[in-house]
Amino acid sequence: ETIYLKDYKPFSYTVQQVDLLFRLAANATRVISKIAFAPNPQAEDQAENRRFFLHGEGLKPISLKIDGTPVTPREVPGGIELDAPDAPFTFEAEVEIDPAANTALEGLYMSNGMYCTQCEAEGFRKITYYPDRPDVLAPFDVRIESDLPVLLSNGNPGTSGPGFAEWSDPWPKPAYLFALVAGDLIAHPDTFTTRSGNTVDLNVWVRPGDEGKCAFAMESLKKSMRWDEEVYGREYDLNTFNIVAVDDFNMGAMENKGLNIFNSSAVLASSETSTDANFERIEAIIAHEYFHNWTGNRITCRDWFQLCLKEGLTVFRDAQFTADQRSEPVKRITDVIDLRGRQFREDNGPLAHPVRPDSFVEINNFYTATIYEKGAELIGMLKRLVGDEGYAKALDLYFTRHDGEACTIEDWLTVFEEATGRDLGQFKRWYEQAGTPRLSFTESFNNGTYTLTFKQQTPPTPGQPNKDPRVIPIAVGLLNPNGDEVQPTTMLEMTEAEQSFTFDGLATKPIPSVLRGFSAPVILEHESDTQTRAFLLAHDTDPFNRWQAGRDLAQESLLTMLRDGAGPDNAYLDALLSLLRDDTQDPAFRALALGLPGQDDIAQTLADQGQTPDPQAIWEAFETLKHARAEAFQDVATRLYAQYQVTAPYSPDAEQSGARALANAAMGMINRLDGGALAQKQFDSADNMTQQLAALSALIAVGKGDAAVARFYDQWQADRLVIDKWFSVQITGARPDEAADVAQRLTQHPDFTMKNPNRFRATLGALAMHPAGFHHASGKGYALLADNLIALDPLNPQTTARMCTSFQTWRRYDADRQALIKAQLERLLATPDLSRDTTEMVSRILG
Ligand code: ARG
Ligand code: ZN
Q1: DSSP 439
Q2: Whole-model pTM?
Q3: Does residue 45 carry a pLDDT above 80?
Q4: Ligand 1, atom 3: nearest CA belongs to which residue?
Q5: What sign does the dihedral 432-437-442-446 (CA atoms) show?
Q6: Which of 284, 344, 352, 467 is least surrounded, with the fewest CB atoms within 10 Å of its CB?
Q7: What digits encode the pLDDT tens for the residues 95-153?
Q8: What is the 3-class SS of 276-336, one letter each residue?
Q9: From the alpha carbon of 310, which atom of ligand 1 is closest?
Q10: Is the distance from the beta carbon of residue 367 to the nearest atom of ligand 1 less than 6 Å?
Q11: 48 is catalytic
């Protein structure tokens, strides 16, 4: 049952008001609803044959009434159909559901004795009968009856007393933004005064014992609220804003109106238990969910094909926020690393799909890097093309024109066209055509005129054999050979398959710095010599491209090692060494420059060049290179390690995290030569997780981790989030031939559970992130993952389907590995009663 964008039809009725009563009981919760419907004037063509269909899944109906008269529904796929008047009427239903048995974590479920909900995308239909689609908006009034002390829902609090609480949400919303929480929870409270003077009560709700880990999330929330007022002119619109931490959660977090629900890993933070990276992620996710209040909730999506309308824009907004709080270049570089690692990989294989897909089977399978991260890149390109002022004008128009509506990408592009007078017809292809464009260029120099000639080409993707040229904003700067910039960054606008741009009045042939700031999500294919790259690493004024030059050098060195059996490239080592020695350079930037491309990125590059990657050989090349760097950088590593120890009290800010990142990178190098002595010292004395975990991982890497692994467990066994790290680090740090065995052993550990997605990901996900371990020639990695996916699917289809993506690159490998993976995929697909989620995913991967 594939659903197509072209088949969109408005719902035949509108909803005027929703009243819900929940009588909570673990195995038999009663949901009593009263919903006011009226014929939808926007669906008058359907008046003849008005169909009253309501979604419903796994509900036990107790009674259904229309205008007070009991009615018997017709069961139809996905819900019920009723005979309803062609005039306003009231529909009432009482249904029974079983939250304690809900392991899919979709709808109303229980997590450690707490009731919570996850309704996006289509979970509300597991709570009661309803038109569960994003274009049906209504105000909700909710009454919760339970003996649990804390009872929460959307909107503003109403009356409450022993055993009950009432909530009222005045802002019309689709059902996917509904939420309910009930439990024995503790609040970390605060308040925020909006720009126009309203005081908002803020709370972060957690289980007893976690109240000491809320302060950072609260600070992040207040910063986000202020930032959205200052940068986008958006104010909060209720008296209360609640955030709840839940241990069992399929994704990061959810933007339910006034009641955001978070995976506890995306809220709880303390310096002892969270790394600097955890802090940064928490700050970003708090901001992301808060920003959805306008981009997602006040303006929502007409249908799920438009998901990128809210997700791409909100990811873009949270990235702007992080860049403002921390370092803009560091944020850009880490986002591009992530985009290449996850989205390019998706765009390159069987799961490639447009940022706005035109069909799907299970929408949960489309919460992807393409829709989120590439979707955000499209917003960034739009902003580059129309300029900051044009962007601000277009956004103002979007908020005033579409407030309270369920919108489309067409609506979004139209506000840009009207605000800026630009035709975005060609730009729209970015939303419609999948695949990553390959951009290449050649240069010529003649009588002071420098010409750059670009070519673009996008390879076919499933269902889309031919691609049209895109509009590509290419940020370019020119340097002269002594290192001065002779042309500051200018935005070239490429619209043709092949196009030239000229620069006049140059005394000498310049060195180009192309695609500055990663101005478009493309693969820049350009053969360049080591000397030019080293020059750019030393002199480019664009920090992104300086970092890119270093990465290109590392990649070239690795590729040559793999192709020709050569040793590490000395020019790369020399260039990196001068950068490391240069204390005028931001430590965070130097730490990033020390990073290497992912082993999976190298595998993809080889595959792109028509070669078959060998994961074991790639792992060995990385080891050789890392060892060579450790030897070449011995002195500087020792100095940097000492110099960048932080003596001030711990703070997760950009400056301290940068220092710790560089010191840890230095420790990682020293570790290869001193057999773990320094790492052991750091492990023994660390008072924060960033240093403790880095030391543990270093000890494991040199085979000296046993004692530390045991001690770490003893110290942290009561903390689920830290124990997730304990599971992961043992697997990601294992030697390739042992990684699957370590993962297999850990699935037998008493603390392993299929029911907690974080723990499942920390174990099986960690294995999949160890390319040489996962792709071990024996096939044991594949078999272990498939065994566990088969076991997980009946419990939690969403997380199962998502983890299947670990197999998506299978066609790039040798015939033996392909056969091994194919056999596992076929075994998965042949599993009786396999979920729709996993069936769709595996079928697409098999192609
Ligand atoms: N809208 C959420 C976000 O902030 C993601 C929720 C997705 N949930 C799901 N089950 N697919 O990105
Ligand atoms: Zn989101």
Answers
A1: E
A2: 0.99
A3: no
A4: 254
A5: positive
A6: 467
A7: 999 999 999 999 999 999 999 999 999 999 999 999 999 999 999 999 999 999 999 99
A8: HHHHHHHHHHHHHHHHCCCECCCEEECCHHHHHHHHHHHHHHHHHHHHHHCCHHHHHHHHH
A9: 1
A10: yes
A11: no
